Structures are given as C-alpha cells and as structure tokens.
Amino acid sequence: MRPEVALPVLLPLLSGALSLLFWRSRPMQRFIAVAGNIALLLVSLWLFVAVWSDGYITMQMGNWPAPFGITLIADMLSAVMILMTGIIGLAMGIYSLATTGRGHEKFGYYPLMHLLLAGVAGAFLTGDIFNLYVWFEVMLVASFALLILGGERAQMEGAIKYVTLNLLASVIFLTAVGLLYGTVGTLNMADIALRLDEAEHSGMVEVLAVMFMVSFGIKAAAFPLFFWLPASYHTPPVAVSALFAGLLTKVGVYSLFRVFTLMFDQTMGYLQDIMLWGAVFTMVTGVLGAAAQYEFRRILSFHIVSQIGYMILGLALYTPLAIAGGVFAIVHNIVVKTNLFLISGITHRLQGTYQLKKMGGLYRERPWLAVAFFISAFSLAGIPPLSGFFAKFVLVRAGLEAEAYVATGIALAVGLMTLYSMVKIWNEVFWKDLPENNHVPSPQASAGDDGRLIKPSLWMMYLPVVVLAAMSLLIGVFAEPIMQVMILIGDQLMNPSGYIEAVMGTSASAEAALLEPFEGQAEPISEDAEGNP
Amino acid sequence: MEPLMALAIGLLYATAIFMMLRRSIVKLVIGLLLLSNGANLLIFTTAGMTRGAPPLIPEGMLQPLGDVADPLPQAVVLTAIVIAFGVLAFAVVLIRRAYEIVKADDLDKMKDTDT
Amino acid sequence: MQLAVLMGFVLAASSPLLNRWFGHRASFVLALFPALIAAWLVSQAPSVFSDGPLLLEWQWVPSLGISLTFMLDGLSLLFGLLITVIGACVLIYAGGYLKGHVDIARFHLALVAFMVSMLGLVLADGLITLFVFWELTSITSYLLIGFNHSNIEARKSARQGLFVTVAGGLALMAGLVLLGVASGNWSLYEIGQMESDLREHALYTPMLICLLLGAFTKSAQFPFHFWLPNAMAAPTPVSAYLHSATMVKAGIYLLARLQPELGDTALWVGILSVVGATTMLTGAFLAIHHTNIKKLLAYSTIMALGTLTMLVGIGTDYAMTAFVTFLLAHSMYKGALFMVAGILDHETGTKDVTAMGGLRGLMPVTATIAFVAALSLAGVPPLFGFIGKELMLEAVLAAEGFRALMLLFAFVSAILTIAVAAIIALRPFYGRRHETPKTPHEAPFSMLLGPGLLAVGSLSLGLLPALLGGNALLTSAATAVSGQPLEVSLSLWHGINVALIMSLVSLGLGFLLFKHWDRVRSHLATLAPVMRYGPEAGYEGLMNYIVRFSEWQTRLLQNGYMRNYILVMLLVLIALIGNSILLRHSPQLALTLDVQFHEVVVVGTMVMGAIFATISRSRLGAVVSVGIMGFSIALIFILFSAPDLGITQLLVETLTVILLVLVLFRLPRFSNLSTNLERIRDGAVATTMGVLIFLLIMTAWSIDQFEPISVYMIENSAPLAYGRNIVNVILVDYRALDTLGEMFVLALAAIGVIAMLKLRHDGTVNEGDKNNTKEPYDG
Amino acid sequence: MVKSGTIILNTAARFLMPLQLMFSVFLLLRGHDEPGGGFIAGLVAAGAFTLYLFAFGVSATKEVLRMVDPRDLIGVGLLLGMISVVPAWFMGQPFLTAQWWTIPVIDFKASTPLIFDVGVYLAVLGSVMGMVMALMEVDKDEP
C-alpha cells in the first residue's frame, strides 16, 4: 500500500470537491485553494522521493489485480511530471489570489483549477488507457470552463476552436481505445504492450499507433494539428493562460512519450520519420508564427507550439539520450513558459496592455521583473547556463549522434528565432521608454476579468515569478542531479519491461491464483449452459 | 450483425464529419453529437455483439447462465455516454453564448482571435 | 580558480551594493578583482612555462561529459592576462567615464560579468563549458551594447550583435558537439593528447565549417563584420574592452586553440587565409570612409582581426610567432586608442574627428598617449606594434598557399592602417582649433591611467621585448598554438629585408593618404550606392524576409477558418490511417452477415436519423432526427444485451433533446453558406473517413486472438464483489476510478455551463448575494 | 422559454414527480444487482425535476428543492464519491477497495460502492439540474 501514488490525484479531487461544497464562501475557497496546492506539492515531493529511492510504485485501485482493475503507476517520468504539476499548481494558486476577480471566484475558479490539476495528475499516473481518456476529459472540461470564465467575445471565439478541436481529438482517442479493446481485449497499458507484441495483425497495430499519434498530437499542439492553441491561449485571464501553457499541452506530449515507448515501440521504425518531420515543422511553424506577432501572450502561445517540437524531437530520435533530452525540455518548458505568462500578467497589470508597442520602460522601473524575464526568456532561447540550454544541448547531442543532421540543424536555428522574439519583447517592453500615448493603466483592464480587484497585491504575483525564474537558473547550474533523473527516465522508457513487470509481474501470479478456483467451477456451468438451450 | 453495424457506424462518422465541416456552429455541434454516438457504437460493436444475454447474474447464483455479452465495453460506453453528454451540454451552451455575442451562426465570423 | 571565476559572477551581482557603499570609487574596488586574478596568473606563469599546461579539475555535469575543468597553458595565460589587466584598466577608466551616470551599477554588473565570462572562456577545458562562457559573453555584451537603451539605435545594434554572434554560437555548438562525438572526448586537453587524427574523421568538414562559423561571427570576419561597427553604440569603455581587446578575439582564441588538432589541412588553410585576408582589406578600406573616431577604430579592429585569422590559417611556426606578437600588440594599442577616443568624446562632446583639432595644448597627456599608441598601430619603430607587423609581413612572405593574394592585401591594408593611425593621432590634436559642443580640458586621472599604462606597455615591450618575461610568455603561447615546441625571441631589428622595405614604403604611402584624406573621402562617398549592397543589407533583408514570411505563414496556417482546421486534421488522420491499412497492410474482412429483420429496421432508422440530421434545412428537423437516431441507438443497446446502456442512452438522449431545443430556440435558421464545390470536397473527405472506419471496425472485430479481460470480471463479480449486475460492478468497483473521474467531468461541465450563463447575468439572478448587483461584463 | 405548462402537464408533473423520485431511489439501490445504478437513477431523478421545471418554472422548482442549490448537490455528491475512496486506506488496502458492512437491525448491506453510487446519483442530479435551471433562468430573463 503506497498511498503516495494515488494521492496526487485524489488530493486535488478532494480539494476541488470541498471547494465546490463551499462555493458560497470566498475566503474558504481561497484557503482551500492554497492549502490544497501546498498539500499537492508535498505529496508530489513524497512521490518523487519514493520513486527515486524505490523505483516503480504501483497501486491497484480497488485491490483488483492488473490487468483487471485500474492501475496507478509512477515511474520516474510520471514522478517528475507530477512534481512539476505540484510546483506549477502552487505557483498558480498564489498568483491567482492576486489576479482572480470576485466573479470568477464565485463561479468556480478555484475548484476548476484544482480539478484541472487532478486531471493532469491522473493522466500522468494512470496505467490504464481508458482511464487516461477519462482524465483527459476531466482536464479538458475543466479547461473549457476556465477558458470561458468571464465570457468576453475573444474568449468565446477562442473557446469554440479549442473545444471543438480538442473534442475531435478526444473522439479519435476514444475510437482508438474501442478498436484497441476489440483487437487485444484489454485496457491496461502494460498488458496492451504485452499483447501488442504478440498481435498477428500488424496493420491494425500500426493504425492504432497512428490514431493515438494524431489524437495526442492534437492535444500536444504539434504540426499540423496545433491551430486551436494560438487561437485560444491568449484569451483567458492570465493565470489560466499560464496554467494552460505550462501543463496542458505537456500532457499530450507525455502521452505520446508513454504510449510510443510502452505500447507501440514496434511501430517506431515507420513512425519515427513521420514524427521527426512533424517535430521539425512544429518547431519551425511555431517559431515563425511568433515572429510576426506584437502581442505579448500571442508570441508566447506560438512559442509553446515551437517548444513542443523540441519535445517531440526527443521522442522521434528514439534513443535513451534523446528521450532524456525531450523530458528535460518538457520540464524546462513547464517552468519557463509558465513564468513568461505570469510575467506578462504582471506587465499587463502595470501597463494595462499586452501590446508590445504600447509598453516600455520596465527595465528601469522594475529591475527585478526585468531580471526574471531576462532569465526566463533567454532560458527559452536556450542560452547557457539556464535550463533551456541543457535541454537543447542534450537534444542536439542526441540528434547528431543519431545522425539526424537536418533536424538538429533546424532545431538550432529555431533557437535563434526564439531569441528573436524574446529580444523583441525585451527591447519593446523593458528597454524602450514608455511611449507617450500610453496612459496609466486602469484597474479595470488589469486583471482582464471583473474589474473588482482585491488590492493589487503585487507580491503575490512576484513571488511565483521569482521562484520560477530561480528554478530555471538552478536547473541549469545544478544540471547534474537533474540530468541523472533524465537519464534514468530515458533508460526506463526505452526498456519498458521494468514498467510492465511492475504492473503485471507480481500480480500475474496473483491472477493465476485467483483464476484457478473459478476455472474449476466455471467449466461445469458453461457446459451446462451449452447443454441447456 | 457486426458488418451491418460497421457500415452504419461508418455512415455515422461520415455524416458527423460532413456536419463538422460546415460553417454553421449548430451544425458543428450536431456533428460532434453524431461523432460521439458513432464512437460509442464503435466501442460497443468491435468487442462483438451478443443477442439476449445481458451481463447479469441470476439471483442466488455466483456465475451467469451461459455466455453473456462482454460487460466491459458496456461499462466503458456508459462512462463515455455520460462524459459526452457533459461535454455536449457545455458545447451547446457555448454556441448559445457565442451566438449572443457574434449575432450570427457562422464560424467564419469568428476568426478575430487568430489573425 | 573556478571558484574565483564563479565568485566573479557573485561580485558582478553585488556591484549595485558596492556602488551604494563606495559611491564613485566602486570602480577601483571592482578593479581589485581582475588585478588579483592577474597576479595569480603571473604567479602560475613559471610553472606553466616549465611544466606545460596546468589542469584544475572540477566536475559540473559528468553524465553529459561537461566539466568545469580549467586548463592554463601559454595561450590561455596570454589571454587571461590581457583580459584581467585591460579589464582592470577599463574598470577604472569607466569609473571616470560614467561618473554620476544613473545606471552605473548596472554597467558594472554587466561589465564584471562579461569579464568573468571571458576569463572562463579562455580558461575552459571542457568543450561545452567553453561554449557556455562563449554565450555568456554574447549575452553580457548584448546588455553592454544596449546600455543606452532609450536610444533606438543602441537597441537595434545590440540586437544585431546578439543575433550574429548567437547564430554563430549555434553553429559553434553544433561544431563542438560534432567534435565531441567524433573524438569521443569532451575535454580540450584530452583531445590534444589523442592518438587518432581528427583530420581524417568523416565528420571533419562539417565540424570544421560549424566551428569556423562560430569563430568568424564572433571575431567579426567578413562577411559577418558588420555588427562590430554598429556595436560602437556602446559606451566607449565597452568598445575598448569588448570590441578591441577581448570578446572579438574569442573567435581568434578558438581558432588558435583548435589549430593543433584541426589546422593545417587544405580546407583550413584555404578558408582562413582567404577570409582573413579579405577581412583585413575590408576593414582597412572601410575604416577610411568614416570620420566617427569610434567607427574608424572599429574598422581598423576588423582589419586586425582579419590579420590574426590569416596568421592562424598560414599555420607555420613563423606565423604562430607573428600571431601571438601581433595579438598582444594590438590589444594594447587598440585598447589605449579606444580609451583615448572615449576621452575625446567625453571632453569635446563629439565623435567626429573632423570636428576636432588643436587639442594638443589643452590635453597634453591624452595627446601623448594617442601619439604613442597610434605609432604602434602604424607599426613604426621602436614600438611593439612594429615588431608585430614585421613578423606578420614575414610570415605572409613565407606562406605557402595564396601568398600573392595575402601579400597584396596585407600591403594595401598596411597603407590604409597607417593613414588611419595618422588620422587618429594627428587630426584631433594638431591643426586649427575647432569649436566643440563641450569645452575640452584634460581628462581626470582615472581616465588617463588605463590608456597610459597600455601606451607605456607598447613602448617598453617594443624597446625591450624580453622585458617582464615577454619572450617566455609568447614562447609558451606560440607553443600552445602550434602544438609543438617553439622558441620566440623578439627583437626590433631584423636587418634590412623585404618586410622592412614594405613597411617603409607603406609608411610613406600611408602618410600621403592621410594628407589627402578629405579628398579621398569625398571620392569614396560616390561609392555609397554600391556600399548599400553589403552583408549588412543582407542581414536586414533576411530579417525582414523572415518577418514577412512568418506573416504569410500565419495567414496561411492560422487562418481562423475552423473548417480548414478540422479539414487539415482529418486529412492527416485519413492519410496516415489509409497508408497503414490500405497501402502498407491490408484490412481483414469477414463478411458473414447474420441479421434479423427488426434489427435491420432499427439500424436503418438510426442511419436515416443521422442522414436527415445532415440534410435537414430546419433546426427543429435536425434535432428531431438526432433524437430519432439516439433512441434507435438505445434500442440497439437493449436488443444486444446492454440494458443499462439502453436506459442510460434513452435518458441522456431525452436530456440532450431538451437542451438542444432550449438552446436552438434562439438561433436563426440554417442558411446555405458553403459552395457546392466545398460540399463535394467535404463529402469526399467524410466518405473516405467513413469507409476507413468501416474497414477498421471489421478488422478489429474479426481479430479474435486474445481473451478479453472481462472474463475475469464476469467470474468474480458475484463471489468477490457481491454484485450481480456486472456492468454496475465494473462501474462502482472494478473501474470505480473511471466513474469517479466521470462524475467530476459532469460536475465540471455543469459548473462551466452555470458560470457561462450566469457570470454575465449575475446580479439580475436571485443568488442571495447582493454584492454583485452591477454588470461588470458588458463592454 | 416555458413559463408554465398546460393543466395536464401541471397535474402530471405534480403526481409524477414523487413517483419518479421514488423510482429513481429504487433504481439506485438495486443497481448493484439489476439494471440501474447511480447514473441511471440520477438521470431519472433529474428528469423528474426537469418535468417539474417545465411545468411550474424555476422559482417553484427552487422552492421544491428547498433552498438546496444544485451546486450543493454536486458538492455533496462529489464529496461522497471521495469519501468512499478512503476507508480502504485504514484497512491497509489500496484506495477504492470495497468495504462491506452489514447493518444489523434491518439487515441492510452497506458498502463503499453503495456510498459511491449515491455520490454518483447526487452529482448527476445536481449537474443536470444545475445546467437546466441555469438555462431556464437565463431564458426567463431574456424574453
């Protein structure tokens, strides 16, 4: 009984349920929000330490042996992703206290946030493919609701695209699950992996792989399936944008990593090239999309797409080092991208706009904010010794070792284009003097929601920003321990037998033991049944 | 039976996709509705269909009488139906609000956030 | 030592504090740091000279082969001393130059950080550590160039410098990784010790090209030289330090560092010689276009960098000697000259040499320093610059490939350089006194100390080359560059030889050019239209093109039309599935049809419902058709042994229809929005998808390879889970987690719906909370 | 949209609603053994209230619900669902492991799956009611 593997899912569910129950009381909601986030962070740390020291940790929910019940399993990848969820969750919790309007708080902002985290955590921990679908839906519906909270025109327009295209992905996913069950007769991912290896109809296996690839590709916003992201991510309140940017697309990427290392490893020969070019085009189109933009959050949104390309590149190269690099990129990107969105929120609060042309002068006015942005932005561009550099370096090294020269070269060039956008923001927002025509921001505009702000508690906005910026720096400076974790992840993912054993191994014998007495009983009954009619 | 169902489900998917490609938001949502129904039927069908043997165990017995229909896809579809309903309700209200704002049932008039 | 370097970053970060504590004397305090490091370097010098490279091991990311190990050999010692000594001078100088500036603390921060990065760069042994420091110098220099960030030119120049150097940096990274992969080693020292020859490795050419791109961009080689003159937007201390003595030499350092392992191939010699010589000529030629004293100096720096590159390319022992000597000489006189330029700018308020004149009397010390340094630049004996230039000419004369070209370029450059030197040394200080924006007077001591020291250095090293172990230092450095033991012994007098004659002739011609400079310039001005097609225009054009391309791409891809988005996604899906199931493999069909009449009717009704929903022109018709379809599905569920499903579907369908009616009630009629062509296209896509789904279902259904896990559930439902409705047992026990999630989905959808409907209408609805009676959302 | 229905609808709703609610509870309790269960029961109950809603309008329905906001139902339902997860932990078993207790006097088998199913019931009821009532309320405001 290892509760730590289930608690990261159950705790946010519980805090979500509690905060729904206390929907009348704002102070209570705010308290539950932060307390729940702190608890989630602690539990995720617990899980991380446990996985680091003990290896795979599993729990058979309901005490039904695998593959019959639902398995929750944490390997190193899950543990890292959960840890990131915990960190980002708390950062967002604190930040939201300062930015969320009363109306939003009243209509379920905090429960939605917690349930979103629960969905994310569930997706990271589940070992069951249909359960993964369920967590995806929890996450999606929570994100739908968060996206439209406030009900402005832009939000509605963005939400329609977001909702429809994500639902399309969900249906493809569901269709694939149905076909998968029809093909192999099981839903447990480890069991599926075993059975797919023996499957005779390799065409069906490939089709399933392709369907999962497209479905998760949509959720991850890979080329050419990313349209929903730039259309919607810049529309909701900034804390929501940040949360989405940090975590949501990464769930899609995580699923790609999980499914293609565990279940569909035999199809990689064919799919690798497709994925590689998908990754390359994702990087390029994303970064080019940002080059023409002059809206803070829109630039950042396009960069999410571009960064997704890096992560998928890691998977497409399909070596342990490349996987390590891809995961490093995920971790780095979660920290940095969230932070950049949070910073855009602060600048918006300070200057009342997201339009770069109208902003300026923050380098002199807010040096600490400038430092935080500088670190995050240049980290995103992969400048050493920040976190992004190591992600990029590992990927470049893996790419060159795998002799994928073109893809690696493009990955490097994309880094330069990332720098272009980041320098654009830096020059416009921080270095340039504030343009004459910008008036002092009105509080009405500042939170993007209901205009009845609590006192502008800037420190609550600064705290997460500074901490995340420091994280980006520290990940770079103390890259060794992190790299060891990443290398372990690379090993674990490329050798899924450990995962399968952790799920099936011990319970395989239990399954036999459980089945045995019934086989004796079942047979006469079934004979009866055959005889009767 | 399954080949017939497969044909019908294929048709369901086709109509759904055709509807989703229209410019009207309402048609889009109806397309989504058709699509999720299609997916549910697909799960139900691929696992094999059985006549007149629901997965129930008669009172006082430990095992069902004879072969019964596979209960797992049923449970999965049940979950999927409810999820689809929730999502659909959300989508339906979304188009209502979107219509209030845009004043037209035309997706082409909703591209301000992209360009 | 590593600690010292890392402490440097801490020191940099704390410089705002130091500025608060020590006021304008903070510069002196900060200058102590490089001075101490210089002292340490000097103390280590004897052992380096005698025992070879000193390795200071320190791990960083061992799992990636990244170490923070420092290697101190002759080359890094030479560079280290340049960085620290000139660094100390510049810090003190900057204290005077920027006295009272509001941002001086930030300036100190960036400058010290840069200095430390540069030091790390030349000391690093690990390939990746070298790169890390390399990029850090790019970033800090970005901050320094953009120091006057209110000025749009400064911002632009900073960005340009950053892009060019970082672009090169990325190539360098690729090159270094290739080097690491090819050699299997991530340490420069160990690569130097390797048996195998990298020159024969299959990756040699790409590796070399990447590395050279990195070095060339950083060291402003043609055609990447344009960023350097623009970088003169930086305050002058920065130009003196970064853009003459240190950062721009990082690329040169890299070339010298790699020459023992990678040099001496046809490719290496060819590229370096030609690029170096071209850069040399370009720099010298462009220099005399300008009257801005900093630009003049910047272009002459480009000329010097070209010379250095060329020398590394030649690669002979003689060239190596020339290389180290020229390097040292150039750093000293160019640093001094930049600082003099800064003094002139600071005191007169203009950078235009033609606007100055007759300042000798007012600023005697400055004038003397300028004169000495300029003589060194011109290569006039007895200054150190003369030795450097002589050696350079001799090395070129002894070169094997491209000798004629290099000789010609070198000779012309020498003439031009002499003219430049004369312009700087004579023009501002002699002749008629001009009115300047500020009234000039002699600069303060802090600003004279640095250039004075460097000028004295140029003079004394020229007179007594062996002074202060100069020979030993250069011997050791040249040995490191050439890879084999080399003896350097410098002297002013080499006898009368070709080089000396060339020097003398160029001196005369150069002076002639100086005399007629104004006329030459007006002639050159007619060339201006041609000059517009330089590499800088290429850079600008590329940047504009990228932005335009990106706009075009965004319009194309992110076009806002939802149906296009869906279409693209579906086409991807169809292509991939179709390719897999139809082309690469084949579907499996088992067309055994076992149907009963009533089943056909139900299925037929369902299909008709779906089709009518598609073609119906009225909303109500569509909703009714959808309802019919839903109820037929419920019937199918019930017919095929799924009573729970049937009931659920029935109830859900009822609610769905209610919802649809409630909502669609307000919407307009369907209108025909698409063209016929679009309909046909969409129909084709939809049909293809439908066919594929059909094939997939048939295939999945006909595969009967594995026993489904539900067998276990059926068997254990009653005995272990105490439930006889197996579906319900699955929902609340076997797979209760799914159901838990599902509850939350439904709840979330409800919250979303309520929020969506009420958040705007809040206050008009009786919610019991009267605080929110206003309508903040209408806008 | 619908302010009040016809007399037939009103009468039907008035009599049908208690019956439907009772039926839904019946479906809920027998769900573990026969077709039924939390979802179905919750949907039936929601159908009952929806019928009432159509017949008598929002405010009347609110009165019937006696100040129980649908959101409270959702909260309680979800919380019950979460509560049923935990007991197994105290027994040292994985979460969600079913626990069965027999209540002695009425010989009723209580179990965590039952609590769970009740949670589902309430959550489904609350969610559907929440949506429908919100829609109707807004419709009422915007004639």
Automatic annotation (TrEMBL), chain A:
One of its GO terms (biological process) is ATP synthesis coupled electron transport. It is found in: Cell membrane; Membrane. It is a multi-pass membrane protein. The chain crosses the membrane at residues 6-24, 31-52, 72-95, 107-126, 132-150, 162-184, 204-228, 240-262, 274-296, 308-331, 368-390, 402-423, 459-479. Keywords: Cell membrane, Membrane, Transmembrane, Transmembrane helix. One of its GO terms (molecular function) is NADH dehydrogenase (ubiquinone) activity. GO terms for cellular component: plasma membrane. Residues 128-413 form the NADH:quinone oxidoreductase/Mrp antiporter transmembrane domain. InterPro entries: CPA3_Na-H_Antiporter_D, NADH_UbQ_OxRdtase, ND/Mrp_TM. Belongs to the CPA3 antiporters (TC 2.A.63) subunit D family. This is MrpD.
From TrEMBL, chain B:
Keywords: Cell membrane, Membrane, Transmembrane, Transmembrane helix. The chain crosses the membrane at residues 6-21, 28-52, 72-95. It is a multi-pass membrane protein. It is found in: Cell membrane. InterPro entries: CPA3_antiporter_subunitC, NUOK/Mnh_C1-like. It holds the Pfam family Oxidored_q2. GO terms for cellular component: plasma membrane. PANTHER family: ANTIPORTER SUBUNIT MNHC2-RELATED. Belongs to the CPA3 antiporters (TC 2.A.63) subunit C family. This is Na+/H+ antiporter subunit C.
TrEMBL record, chain C:
The chain crosses the membrane at residues 24-42, 78-98, 105-124, 130-149, 161-181, 268-289, 296-316, 322-344, 365-384, 404-426, 447-468, 492-514, 565-583, 595-613, 620-640, 646-665, 685-703, 739-757. Residues 605-669 form the MrpA C-terminal/MbhD domain. It is a multi-pass membrane protein. It comes from the Bacteria. Keywords: Antiport, Cell membrane, Ion transport, Membrane, Transmembrane, Transmembrane helix, Transport. One of its GO terms (molecular function) is antiporter activity. One of its GO terms (biological process) is monoatomic ion transport. This is Monovalent cation/H+ antiporter subunit A. The keyword Aminoacyl-tRNA synthetase does not apply. Residues 678-758 form the MrpA C-terminal/MbhE domain. Residues 60-107 form the NADH-Ubiquinone oxidoreductase (complex I) chain 5 N-terminal domain. It is found in: Cell membrane; Membrane. One of its GO terms (cellular component) is plasma membrane. Its main location: membrane. Residues 124-412 form the NADH:quinone oxidoreductase/Mrp antiporter transmembrane domain. InterPro entries: CPA3_Na-H_Antiporter_A, MrpA_C/MbhD, MrpA_C/MbhE, ND/Mrp_TM, Proton_antipo_N. Pfam families: MbhD, MbhE, Proton_antipo_M, Proton_antipo_N.
From TrEMBL, chain D:
InterPro entries: CPA3_antiporter_subunitB (IPR050622), MnhB (IPR007182). GO terms for cellular component: plasma membrane. Residues 8-129 form the Na+/H+ antiporter MnhB subunit-related protein domain. It comes from the Bacteria. The keyword Transit peptide does not apply. It is a multi-pass membrane protein. Its main location: membrane. Keywords: Cell membrane, Membrane, Transmembrane, Transmembrane helix. It is found in: Cell membrane. The chain crosses the membrane at residues 12-32, 38-61, 73-92, 112-136. The keyword Signal does not apply. Belongs to the CPA3 antiporters (TC 2.A.63) subunit B family. PANTHER family: NA(+)/H(+) ANTIPORTER SUBUNIT B, NA(+)_H(+) ANTIPORTER SUBUNIT B. This is Na+/H+ antiporter subunit B.
